[in-house]
Amino acid sequence: MTAARSRKRPVDQSRLEFAEKFNVERYGQAAEALHGRSDSQQELAEVRRERAAISEVLRAIANSPHDLQPIFQTIIESTVHLCRAELGSFRLVEEAGLGLVAHTKSPAVAYSPPALIEHGSFLTRVLAGKSPVQIADQAAHELYRTGEASLVAAVKGGLQTGLFVPMLGNDKPIGMLSIGRRRIEEFTEKEIELVTDFAAEAAIALEIARRERQLREVQMELAHANRVATMGQLTASITHEIRQPMAAARTGAGAALRWIDKTPPDLAEVRDALAGVVSATDRAGDVVARIGALMMKAPPRKDVLDLNEAIIDVIALTHNEATKTRVTVCTKLAPCLPCIHADRVQLQQVMLNLIVNGIQAMNDVTDGQRDLLITTESTEDGLHVEVQDTGPGLSPEKLGRLFEPFYTTKPNGMGMGLSICRSIIEAHGGRLWATGHAPQGAVFQFTIPARPA
User: Fold this and answer.
1) Is the peptide bond before 107 cis (omega within 30 degrees of 0)?
2) pLDDT tens sequence across 336-346
3) Least packed by Cβ within 10 Å: which of 151, 163, 206, 278?
């Protein structure tokens, strides 16, 4: 028995050793795999956070092409969050230095970034170097000991580690992203790379905004040139429009003089004649005012607008041109249209182009009526306007190219009128299009979304 036991013991011991080894290997591998899986999950979560932050920045750029403030604020908030920092500031180069345009901070930080960092300071020197600079322990840095104002203020406010990343546009310094931590902990290469990427996105947003501004300026110049050209076509008609009330005023003034020279003067007739003079000069003043409004070169200005009233003013300007070419202008303007938030001059320019185009399209009509019908109506989403003529109509080829820049069907046309009209309507959130009309003619239509006044 004892011998048996003694013979079995080594076997049991070897089994035990084998089991221990097996367990160590098995559970060690499992623990290692678990640890590896945990690292992978952490990396995946980090990648997702980065992608979400980048998507948020891109959304901000897409949603605010003309307003950079929300973009800058989104960029600096995302930077601070992803880099586990407590404070961030976004600055752009100004004439006097680096101006603060966006910032974020934790309640635990007492430091408030100044509105302006003047030239010659530490930050402007970093910017001139064009490369990111990190200070792991700002209180121990030589610049702090020599009294560099920005570092002293940051350390006193509770910031220990700072990262400063220049923003470049066409390789020129245009701004700075700065982030800080309350603890002494260096930013990793990955974090520095991330901030650099955000700085590049901010530079792209600035470039987009600059080009958008240039495009708007070019469009404004073209729109003004188009208005001048269109009004030039109406010079004879406008001259007649002004001459009529001026002639009426002169006639009324002459009559008043004759009535006042009578013995005794007929004051009632004088009063009536002078009232006619006032009315005629008011009419002439209205014509001049309408011309002045359309000819002025001013930035777009959106106000609450009664579209029917704006259209009536344009019809009055083109009245004599229509009469001269034997065109009958009719209107079906829906009563009580909701007011819209729009630029009056720009929408009147659209109507002026469409009305003049319609009148000119009927110049060669020999058989049938020369009718121009202008219709407005309220829709579920806003307003709908139609300008319908009884001209020769539009071929499929013309319809396909009608709104292309520099495409024209007129011998002396610039080919910019309809293209500008479409850009104006689209800038107001609407749509402009053209169709044929049976049995003859064309219909130009546009929609404008109604906005609450």
Assistant:
1) no
2) 888 888 888 88
3) 278
CA distances from 45 to 40, 42, 51, 338 (A): 8, 5, 10, 50
Enumerate the domain spans of the chain. 64-209, 234-297, 300-453
Average pLDDT value for residue range 288-315? 75
Domain 300-453 classification at class level: alpha beta
Secondary structure E strands in 67-109? 87-93, 97-105
pLDDT at 7 over 50: no
The three-state secondary structure class of 194 is helix
Determine the residue type at 233.
Q
**Same-fold call for 64-209 versus 234-297:** no
**Of 117, 153, 127, residue with least CA distance to 138:** 153
Q: Which CATH architecture has domain 234-297?
A: Orthogonal Bundle (1.10)
Q: What is the mean pLDDT of residues 229-237?
A: 62
Whether 100 and 113 have beta carbons less than 8 Å apart is answered as yes
Kindly report the CATH number that applies to the domain delimited by 64-209.
3.30.450.40
Strand, helix or coil for residue 168: strand
